Each structure stands twice: as structure tokens, then as C-alpha cells.
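Annotated sample (chain length 153).
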Amino acid sequence: MDLSYNSLCGSIPEELTDLSGLQYLNLYGNHLTGEITSKIGRVHELESLDLSRNNITGAIPSSLDSLDYLGSLNLSYNNLSGKIPYEKHLATFNDPTIYIGNYNLCGPPLLVNCSEEKLEPTTPASDGQEKDVWLYLGIGSGFVTGLCCCELH
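Output written by the structure step:
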């Protein structure tokens, strides 16, 4: 089922997990929020799951690790956090790019070790915006200082 780029909003419908024979689910590039339901493990036949480029939060449910037929996974560019369940089937996914853009994920295959401290969500865009504010303030104050010095001479 390909529902990519449909401007879907809200959380992932839990009813999708009732489709036990579903093999392909692509929700790429929507506006989905909320967490990945732990009931995702009920979709036993799932071979491909793409939830990338949404605003999904929370931890990756351990039930995702029990999907034995899952051969393709992309969870990149969301706001997932916590330790990646890397004990069973997800341990076969060695490519860290399937998790890229989730700044609070940790554990293999990422190079970020998990600590005991609770990870708090970040908003990477705000870091860039803050730098831009300081840049513009610096340029503005330099311009004003230059004008004042010219007026004095």
C-alpha cells in the first residue's frame, strides 16, 4: 500500500495493523505525528516499511524487531528517540541511513552509544535558526558601528 505524499495528518491509523497480510506499507513524506504503535508486530507478512520524512515521535517499538519477513525499512527524518531494538530481526539492518535524521536515537547500527540519561527531543532546525539570528545581529551591529564611525569623521 503506497500512501506516500498524500498530506496525511495525525497518527498512523492503528487499523492498518489489522491488515495481517499487508506486505508493503509506504507512508513516506506525509505529516504523520505520534508514535509507531506497538501493534505493528501483528502485520506478520510485512516485507517493506517506509515511514520516513514525517514527524513521528517516541521509541521504535520492540514488536518491529519481530517482523521476520521485513527486508526493507526506512524510518529516517522523523523525531524518534531511545534505543534501537537491535536484538532479533532488526540486527540484520546494518545501514545506519535508515535511521538518519532522528537525532535522539542510539545504539547499533548507529555510532551513538545509549546512556542511562533520558534523551530529550531536539529540534535541529532551531539550532540553525539561532545561529542565523546571531549572524544577523552581528552584521547589523557592525553596520551601525560603521555608520557611526563615518559620521564622526
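Annotation: The chain has two domains: 9-116, 123-153.
Annotation: Residues 23 and 45 are 5 Å apart (CA to CA).
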